[in-house]
From TrEMBL:
GO molecular function, one term: ligase activity
Gene name linked to the record: purD
ATP-grasp domain ranges (all copies): 106-312
Keyword check for Transcription regulation: no
Protein species of origin: Turicibacter faecis
EC number: 6.3.4.13
Protein family per UniProt: Belongs to the GARS family.
Name of the molecule in the record: Phosphoribosylamine--glycine ligase
Length: 417
């Protein structure tokens, strides 16, 4: 079997590593990939160049294409492949709007009674400011479109909220992504991620994971694309898991069918366990990053078997081990703002018994070096979260690069709760 993975980061590297472990793929291609993905053949095609990707898949008789990033989905890569009869796992551009537009996601949740925060959507700065003055602080302001995980700001004061609205709507901080904004109620509680493999009305929920969005220890600093993750999440109980499936995943898959845009691919729900019950923070239309890196090591069923079965509309049992995984992002200094590039990374060959997924690296003068905001993701596996946590932090200390930083508190609070 020949498999093409679209994307360039840690999520895609984790998918490649899973394909290698499954031993079903005779050839694994990654477009465009990065220099740390030694297990795959890199293909120099950008994620949004859908016609070129389809031509490559056709010419090389690719048996399955797996889409990593949201930008590919919103560029219509699945639509292009479907027109040519090429097997690809992911939602169409129309279905991916569940991630591509916060306002559309909110509309769907409101229409189909899926629990979420109260909100308003705005394109006009005066109307947005007037709405803010009727709301409690803190409050959450989101760019409507895709902003690489950085388009969400939690504002503690009215002054901060008004300045954020101005930055997004007037200054277009996120270009067209912030031509419309969603202002929503701040949800308090325990955050968690739930993903599912979906094909129309069939869904196979994955185990729970927990993402850490803020840049620094103690959940301080700016929102990022994710600075660490772990699975399972001891503060989310079996009853919460069932509630999340029954109140969020199942009704949204049915809602998409009802709207005439059935969903096939990975449906991701970012959730909050509040005093009033489970509520949705956001939906994504693809594997979460870095949830993928901590979940795929726990998946025992072959990934290609799951995806090809679902593409044929067939149900399939998905088996997960009961191990615990803890993963840490090593980011370039300055991230999520302007960050350092080009610094060499030493010590990677000294790491033992952990998974290393390359997120933003490049080979410069035969040395793996910084080439992105989030650079590496290191995952430890153990019988308990504490075992996994100790292992990953012990190994991360061996990485030598003056321009990398990481959080030291991933999974610490939940273990001690």
């Amino acid at each position: 079997m020949k498999v093409l993975v679209i994307g360039r980061g840690g999520r895609e590297h984790a998918i490649v590593k899973k394909l290698v472990r499954d031993r079903k793929a005779s050839q694994i291609f990654c477009a465009p990939g990065n220099d740390g993905m030694s297990e795959a053949t890199l293909v120099p095609i950008e994620e949004t160049h859908v016609a070129e990707l389809a031509a490559f898949a056709q010419e090389n008789q690719i048996d399955l294409t797996i889409v990593g990033p949201e930008v590919s989905l919103m560029a219509g890569v699945v639509n292009e492949f479907n027109q040519l009869g090429l097997p690809i796992f992911g939602p169409t551009k129309e279905a991916a709007l569940i991630e591509g537009s916060k306002a559309f996601a909110k509309y769907m949740m409101q229409k189909y009674d899926i629990p979420t925060a109260a909100y308003g959507e705005f394109t006009n700065i005066e109307e947005a400011t007037a709405y803010l003055r009727t709301q409690k602080m803190p409050i959450v302001i989101k760019a409507d479109g895709l902003a690489a995980g950085k388009g969400v700001v939690i504002c503690q004061t009215l002054e901060e909220a008004e300045a954020t609205v101005k930055e997004m709507l007037l200054d277009r901080k996120f270009d067209d992504a912030s031509s419309k904004i969603v202002i929503e109620e701040f949800l308090d509680g325990e955050e968690f991620s739930l993903m599912a493999f979906v094909s129309n009305e069939i869904y196979k929920a994955m185990p729970i994971a927990r993402d850490y969005k803020r840049a620094h220890d103690g959940d301080l600093g700016l929102n990022t694309g994710g600075m660490g993750n772990h699975s399972p999440h001891p503060l989310i109980f079996d009853t919460d898991y069932e509630d999340a499936i029954n109140q969020v995943i199942e009704p949204m898959t049915k809602a998409m069918i009802e709207e005439g845009i059935p969903f096939t691919g990975i449906l991701y729900a970012g959730l909050m366990k509040t005093a009033e019950g489970i509520k949705v923070i956001e939906f994504n239309a693809r594997f979460g990053d870095p949830e993928t890196e901590v979940l795929l090591p726990r998946l025992e069923t072959d990934l290609t078997d799951i995806m090809l079965s679902l593409l044929e509309g067939k149900d399939i049992e998905c088996h997960w081990n009961d191990k615990a995984t803890v993963g840490i992002v090593l980011a370039a200094k300055g991230y999520p703002g302007a960050y350092v590039k080009g610094t060499p990374i030493k010590g990677l060959d000294e790491l033992v018994d952990v998974d290393v997924c390359h997120m933003g690296t490049k080979l410069i003068d035969n040395q793996i070096s910084l080439n992105g905001g989030r650079v590496l993701f290191v995952v430890g596996t153990g019988d308990t979260l504490e075992d996994a946590r100790q292992k990953v932090y012990q190994e991360v200390k061996k990485i030598d690069c003056k321009d990398l930083f990481y959080r030291t508190d991933i999974a610490k609070k939940v273990i001690n709760s």
